[in-house]
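Q: Given only this backbone (316 positions), what sequence would you predict?
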């Protein structure tokens, strides 16, 4: 079940860019006043397309360009590839695309700063949002009242579903991923006693809730439900409780491969050697290649990307 989330992220980013280009025609301010759409005799609304102002179409974008989640800065590569291809083919109705990048470091504080700068200083109408749910939710609090379109290619918190009318994503909600992982753990792996270790951020707490509720509904038991703060590096206390709980499966629910790999290492030291499932943010090609022994036999989930599709082959 394990796949590389980084590959998924860059593919979903391209879709987000394409959707935004479609939205350009309808959400940019018109250069001249237009009549409001009215119903015709067949009750089908007429579509009035706004005019695109002269010059390039400027879009904002934020990503973890530094920090622990920098592995997911591949979304910048994907976005730049999409923009390069679109511009080489004439742009959008003759207008070239231009991206203004901001570093959100995958946390709410920097996400807020990135969105404020893009909305209030750069005056963008569209933002390709970030990877992490916490940063995306923070950005949505800025973009929604400003009626700036925000697209995320990887944020998966269920809370984003109701974050606003101008907030969208091209990545499945944790309401789906958590259920799939819980059902696989119970039905396929035949495990009954679950121990969880989760980081205190929006993304992982959303997964924690869904995983716990689904596992219990199936008939399983959550025997340990431990949390830690972002930036923590010592998990011995939580891991000891999980070891003593009698769990036959452990859910490592870290916000990225850096803390996740550290937890897996400390699990080995603590002698907590039971079947392990992880969220998809841990499935980094770089982390796995450097820690093959740690990830051997670990299960995870990922959106299904068919490598046989012509579009996927061309992109890769």
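A: Predicted residues:
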């Amino acid at each position: 079940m394990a796949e590389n989330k980084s590959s998924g992220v860059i593919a979903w980013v391209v879709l987000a860019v394409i959707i935004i280009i479609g939205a350009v025609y309808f959400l940019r301010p018109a250069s001249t006043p237009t009549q409001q759409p009215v119903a015709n005799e067949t009750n089908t609304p007429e579509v009035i397309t706004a005019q695109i102002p002269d010059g390039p179409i400027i879009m904002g974008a934020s990503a973890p360009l530094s920090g622990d989640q920098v592995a997911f800065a591949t979304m910048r590569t994907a976005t730049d590839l999409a923009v390069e291809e679109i511009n080489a083919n004439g742009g959008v109705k003759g207008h070239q695309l231009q991206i203004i990048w901001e570093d959100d470091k995958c946390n709410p504080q920097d996400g807020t700063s990135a969105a404020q700068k893009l909305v209030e200083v750069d005056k963008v109408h569209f933002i390709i949002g970030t990877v992490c749910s916490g940063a995306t939710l923070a950005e949505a609090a800025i973009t929604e009242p400003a009626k700036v379109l925000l697209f995320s290619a990887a944020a998966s918190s269920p809370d984003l579903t109701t974050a606003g009318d101008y907030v969208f994503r091209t990545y499945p909600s944790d309401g789906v991923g958590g259920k799939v992982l819980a059902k696989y753990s119970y039905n396929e792996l035949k495990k009954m006693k679950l121990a969880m270790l989760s980081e205190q951020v929006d993304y992982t707490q959303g997964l924690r809730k869904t995983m716990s509720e689904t596992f219990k509904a199936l008939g399983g038991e959550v025997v340990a439900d431990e949390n830690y703060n972002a930036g923590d590096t010592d998990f011995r206390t939580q891991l000891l409780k999980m070891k003593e709980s009698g769990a036959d499966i452990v859910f490592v629910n870290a916000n990225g491969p850096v803390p996740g790999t550290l937890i897996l290492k400390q699990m080995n030291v603590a002698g907590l050697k039971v079947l392990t499932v992880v969220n998809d943010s841990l499935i980094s090609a770089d982390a796995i290649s450097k820690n093959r022994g740690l990830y051997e036999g670990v299960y995870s989930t990922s959106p299904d990307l068919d490598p046989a599709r012509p579009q996927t082959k061309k992109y890769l």
